[in-house]
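Lab notebook, bench 4. Still working through the backlog of constructs that have no structural model yet. Next entry is a single chain of 566 residues. Request: give me the structure tokens for it.
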Amino acid sequence: MSNVEIICKNTGIRKEYPMGVTLAQIAADQQVVLKDDILGAKCNNKLRELSYEVYKPKTIEFIDINDSIGYAMYLRSMVFILFKAVRDLWPECTLKVEHALPLGSYCEILGRNGELTLDMVMKLRDRMQQIVDARLPFVRTVLPTEEAIEIFKKNRLNEKVLLFQTRRELYTTVYTLDDVSNYFYGYLVPHTGYIKNFHIDRYFGNGLIAMRPDAGEIIGQDTRKFLSTLIQEALDGGSKLFKTFQEQKDWLDIMGVPYVGNLNKVVLEEGPGRLIKISEALQEKKIANIADMVVKSPDCRIVLISGPSSSGKTSFCKRLSIQLQVLGYQTAEISLDDYFVDREKTPLDENGEYDFECIEAIDREFFNQQLDQMLQAKNVEIKLPTYDFRDGKRKFLGKKVKVSPKTILIIEGIHGLNPALTTIDPRFTFKIFVSALTHISIDTQNPVSSTDNRLIRRMVRDNNFRGNTALDTLSRWASVRRGENKNIFPYQENADVMFNSALLFELGVLKKHAEPLLREIPESSEHYGEATRLLKFLSYFVSIDEKEIPPTSILREFLGESSFIY
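Model written out:
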């Protein structure tokens, strides 16, 4: 039998093995030891399970839960265990993973009458622990799609049936855990015994919080106290973020497109026109309602807007400005980026690099001086700065704003909701958080990540307008996410209102722009595996033509042909 050469990055060993050797056998032979259990490996930068058989030379890097890809494997496997536990205890029910919450996922048990009790949650925990202790294998099988669809029908996974009827792939992967089969967007760990840390608790109604395995480390060991806070929020009506997600969910149910398969069916059978028109009209109505809220705040003179990367904040500002003008107000749009300190005064991060995302990078003293001038001005022109990013200096290039008592300042920037930004009396301000809170799901156990939606938006925009490749965008994304987690998301609940910029049809539109960019990423790149994952993600969506998207759409900020000047 011929041999294949394996290069293991974890050990630095270069060695030949018989063709067909598994990753698990290689790890055992080279005695690979990581901080936690080995969950899988990157083979030529593409994720593979430990059961993967090698027939060609590979460069391999084994991963554990501390790698973001391994972490995702762990969470998917935990969800499958929870899914089986629900089916074991209540065969008529199924588990739906709705969306992310702080330190976990919000799930619902479908098919139940009445609220989920604490006793029922305890039974779920016990059943999950039994499944973990049994070390049951996650069996992966690749089948002709017609056969997979029959399995999904048998397991009452009707939204998966429709998904794969519209996806039109020849073969489909099915995972089986004991007597239950399912489909997951991505790989799982070898067996249930790997899921050593999990926690679930009641949220409200039939809702559950499935906690991240590292939640205890992040919030300390007093997990119950944290969960009690979340539960109380629910009983009080929920957080603003949770309410925004629920609102989107209700609307998708009314539209009849809660899952990607439903969306694809509508597009294939009647075209995307109706969905585009209704989605855009809904956003316009929301923006108009927010404008009404602003002017009904009796002392409001300043609107502060924040949100993560690629949320469409700039387009939102421009559309809000139009709605405020409809109500008889003058507006002035101001970017916090123009208030950066000079480059040599910019703080450094832990790596000695300029930290442009910390609040100390903003000249808050000068910013608040100008806000005071604007609030006190009566029909006076005030000179505004423009930050020259090439020179790293604030300059005055003739930009002015004429302020009157009927002027509302619209200020956009990542620190817009941070209380440390302004010294202005809060009664003069109205705060808005903007994000693309995607709620349509691939199916009941595979929600669409809002982060993936924003990443694909940014990838397309950066290529269209900034000359960046998909590889450039992926290389910077981890840093962008760290900045968001530190400077934006902790303050999102400070908002008076949240605006969801996600559009029901957008991933079908972005697909044809993003796929060619992702295919350019070479196998030699460390981001090749992420590119492959995103290509698979986009493959679930039927392509949608963009010709009916209006020029004022938030999506035009990323695609081009907007009637706004950016």
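Notes after review: The radius of gyration is 25 Å. DSSP finds 17 helices and 25 strands in the chain. Flag for follow-up if needed.
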